Amino acid sequence: MRRDPRTEREIKYRTPARRDEPRRNSRRDGKEEYFEELSRSRRKASRQSRATESSVEEDRRRLRQIRAEEQEILRRQEERAQRRNGRRSTGAEDFYEPDYYEDEWESIRRPSNYRQEKEYYKQSLKERRYKEDRGRTSYEDRRRRPSVYEAETAKPKKKGKAKRVFTTILVILLILVVGLGVVWCVPSCRAAAVKTVLKSPLGPVFGNMIFGKSYEQYVHDQDFDEASVKIHDGVSIPNGNMTIALFGVDAREEDLQIGTMADSMVVINVDSDGNIKMASVFRDTYLLSRTKDGEEIISKANSAYYRGGPLGAVNMLNENFDLAITDYVVVNFWGLANIIDLIGGIRLKVTETEKDELNYYMWEQNLYGGNEFVPLEEYGDSVLLTGDQATAFCRLRSVNFESPEDGVTYHDDYGRAARQRYTLTELIAQTRDLGVLKLMMIADDLFEANSGDKKFIQTSLNMRELTKWFACGYDMNMAGSAGYPDLEHQYGANLDSGATVVADTLEENVALMHEFLYGIQGYEPSAGLREVAEKIRAEVARQIGY
Question: In the β-sheet with 262-270, what is the strand arrangement from edge to edge?
Answer without folding.
Answer: 457-459, 328-331, 242-249, 262-270, 275-281, 477-484
